[in-house]
Amino acid sequence: MLRTTAIVASIGLLGTMAHADTLTFYTAGPGGLADALAEAFEAETGITVNVFQGSTGQVMARLEAEEANPQADVVVSASWGSAEDMHARGLLMEYTSAHAQTVPDFLKHSHYAAQGVSALAMVWNSQSDVPRPEEWSDLTDEVYRDLITMPDPSQSGAAFDLVAGLEAAMGDDAWNLLAALADNDMIVPGPNAAALNPVLQGAKAVVFGAVDYISYGQAESGESIEVISPASGTVIAPRPMMILESSANADSAKAFVDFVLSDAGQALVAQTYLMPARTDVEGLRPGISDLTIIDVDADAATARRDEIIARFNETVINR
Amino acid sequence: MLRAQSVLTTLAAVALLVLVGLPVVFILLQAVFPDFARGSFAGAFSKLAILTENDRLLMQARNTLMLAFSVMFGCLVFGLPVGVLRGLFHVPGARIWDVVFLIPFLIPPFIAAIAWMMTLQPRGYLFQLLGFDLGGFLFSFAGVAFVMTLNLFPLVYFAVSRALEMVGGRFASAARVHGARPVQAFFLITLPLSIPAIAASLLIVFAMSIEEFGTPAALAARTGFDVLVTGIYTRLSDWPIDMSGAALGSTMLMAMVLAAFALQNWIATRRSYISQMGKPADLEKIDLGAWRWPVIGVFSLVALIGVVIPLAAIAVTSLTGTISGGLAWSNLDTRHYVPLFQKGSRATQALMTSGWLAVVTAFATAVIGGLVAYIVVRGTGRGRAVMDGLSVLPNAIPAIVLAVGIILAWNSPFLPLTLYGTAGILLIAYIGILLPYPIRYAVARLRQISGSLDDAARVAGATQMGSLRHITLPLMAPSLIAAMMLVFAIASRELVASIMLAPAGLRTVGTFVFSQFEQGSVQTGMAMSMVAITITSGILLVVNLWLARQGSSAFSG
Question: Measured between alpha carbons, how far is A266 from A279 in angstroms, rounded to an integer?
Answer without folding.
Answer: 10
